[in-house]
Design a protein that fits this description.
single chain, about 270 residues, alpha/beta, two-stranded antiparallel sheet, about 15% strand
Length: about 270
């Protein structure tokens, strides 16, 4: 079931994200320029994949690089009646958010990048409900909203890449888009796909001794650390990178889902 009826506060935040042109003057050929520069090739920043307003579980990650054939990454302002990001109307902002909300709907064309995460996380239980991407209860949220032409991990080490990082996420200056999304939607569970050091303790929480002991007692190859915020408000789980997940056979993926479930059950008990 798709979430509808976004609040004015939501639309204000997503208006800021979708209209953002903080990096529109950058020119590096391997970075965000081909997506962010003003002109007919400009795309809309990707705020999220999946129904973020209804999802209690968020996967926080970095997509490796942009693919214009992807229905989210390649979304153009012109497809929503605008000449560019900055000119998107209020009605268009709501339509764009709905477009991203529907990314994992049954029958949708989903990037192969997400398949290992779907295999891992579909079927996780939280608060008596079984979660899945396709039912709008798990979403993926990028640290950085503009795609890059080449690998993000290489680009972020360049001066221009660091500027993009500061513009989009930096705590003490910049747009802080991901942090504002967390503050607005208040997800119960944050799963960090190798990105746990990128979000401070005010959002991630503090290390939970008992849950980390539970992880150490398991034979998990994927779970690295666990934090909690105000005990029952939020649990954050730091995972290894997708490269580790990609190397796991299906039987180990199923075992890792069970390890995650044990952590969530122990936190909720």
């Amino acid at each position: 079931m798709l979430h509808t009826g976004d609040t004015p506060t939501e639309l204000d935040l997503y208006g800021d994200i979708f209209r953002c042109e903080s990096c529109s003057d950058l020119t590096g050929p391997d970075g965000v320029a081909t997506f962010a520069a003003r002109g007919p090739a400009q795309t809309i920043p990707v705020s999220h994949f999946g129904d973020i307003s209804r999802s209690p579980l968020w996967l926080i990650l970095n997509n490796p690089k942009g693919d214009r054939l992807d229905v989210a990454v390649g979304a153009s302002p012109r497809s929503f009646g605008s000449s560019g990001r900055a000119a998107l109307s209020a009605a268009s902002i709501a339509s764009v958010k709905t477009h991203f909300d529907r990314y994992f709907e049954p029958g949708a064309r989903i990037s192969e990048f997400f398949k290992p995460w779907i295999d891992l996380l579909d079927g996780i239980r939280l608060d008596g409900r079984t979660l899945s991407f396709s039912e709008g209860r798990i979403c993926a949220v990028d640290l950085i909203k503009c795609p890059t032409r080449d690998s993000w991990m290489g680009y972020v080490m360049t001066p221009e890449g660091k500027r993009v990082w500061d513009n989009c996420l930096r705590h003490d200056r910049g747009n802080r888009f991901l942090l504002r999304q967390i503050d607005l939607h208040r997800p119960r569970v944050l799963l960090f796909a190798g990105t746990q050091r990128c979000v401070g303790r005010d959002w991630r929480g503090s290390a939970n001794r008992s849950l980390n002991a539970l992880v150490r007692q398991s034979d998990s190859r994927l779970i690295e650390s666990v934090w909690t915020l105000d005990a029952r408000q939020r649990v954050s789980i730091g995972l290894a990178s997708q490269r580790v997940l990609d190397r796991l056979d299906l039987q180990f993926v199923n075992a890792e889902r069970q390890h995650l479930q044990k952590v969530l059950d122990a936190w909720a008990s």
